[in-house]
Write a structure and sequence with these properties.
- This protein folds into 2 domains: 113 residues; 126 residues, Thrombin, subunit H, CATH 2.40.10.
- The protein contains 2 helices and 21 strands.
- The strands form 5 sheets. It has a 5-stranded antiparallel β-sheet, with no helix packed on it. A 4-stranded antiparallel β-sheet has the order 6-7-8-9, with no helix packed on it.
Length: 277
């Protein structure tokens, strides 16, 4: 999965939310009102060239941008939405195909029941998986957005449909951090295997490691995969909850590292993406 860095504390602009980076790609950052980008060579100290991208001069489908994702051809995909004065949300994804901007929005595609997109990842087959405030979207770029499939609490074992984070494992299975927009403790850590259409869902009732202390508090904020350094396809799942700290799942076993102040000094340290988000 593409690493991301939270830029809330940087002096560049208070509007930055998240940054998606591919090592050889342009570096793009999502802003609340606009998108700006600069050449990756700027990291080496060279002159930064800025350009301001807004819905008026692109296909970005909204003014509030959640994230920017850079694909394998170094082209940006921007998740954005706009809330109307009547409280309706319109938006989705704007992407550049090399010549033009294109939009995939809930206005044109009813499979998108919420245009608030929180994360996106590409699996080993090139399928895009999008975590939204109303389920998980499967987007096969070859088939087009008309063939999108939505997974939510109505057609899967997921207990809630607001998915805050997504990670693709080396075995091409999908891990989800889930919570409910209407109920603070409701949610789960979920594992989905698209090849077999099988699901595993964990709450404090069947595994989340803080269950004995906070039973029923099932909200998961973030999830990340750390493959074993020796290869072989094995990996550890890291997940966080903003009040309850960080845990891991590996080989059927959960471990809880406690609250954030307790995990800063861990050796080895908690994965970079977990700590900085």
């Amino acid at each position: 999965m593409i690493p991301r860095i939270d830029l809330h504390s940087t002096p560049v602009t208070p509007c930055f939310r998240r940054l998606s980076v591919r090592p050889a790609a342009a570096i793009a950052a999502a802003m609340t009102i606009a998108i700006v980008y600069f050449a990756s060579t700027a990291l080496a100290g060279e002159t930064i060239s800025w350009r301001r991208l807004v819905p008026g001069n692109t296909g970005i489908p909204g003014d509030t941008c959640s994230f920017v994702w850079i694909d394998e051809q170094d082209r940006p995909w921007v998740a954005a939405f706009t809330q109307t004065i009547w409280g309706e949300f319109h938006g989705g994804l704007g992407y550049h195909d090399g010549d033009h901007w294109n939009a995939i929005s809930n206005v044109d595609h009813p499979q998108i029941t919420s245009p608030v997109f929180n994360d996106m990842a590409r699996d080993q087959n090139g399928i895009l998986w999008i975590a939204t405030d109303s389920g998980l979207l499967r987007l096969d770029r070859a088939a087009g957005p008309e063939a999108m499939i939505r997974y939510d609490h109505t057609n899967t074992p997921m207990l809630a449909s607001q998915i805050g984070d997504i990670a693709i494992a080396p075995d091409n299975t999908i891990w989800l951090a889930i919570h409910d927009v209407d109920s603070v403790p409701n949610g789960s850590l979920a594992h989905f295997n698209p090849a077999t259409n099988s699901w595993q869902v964990w709450t404090t009732a069947n595994g989340l490691p803080w269950g004995s202390t906070w039973p029923g508090w099932n909200w998961i904020d973030h999830v990340a995969i750390v493959p074993d350094s020796g290869g072989g396809g094995s990996y550890t799942v890291w997940f966080t909850q903003q009040e309850l700290g960080t845990g891991t799942y590996r080989d059927g076993q959960f471990t809880w590292f406690g609250y954030l102040p307790d995990i800063i000094a861990l050796d080895p340290p908690v994965p970079f993406r977990i700590l900085l988000r």
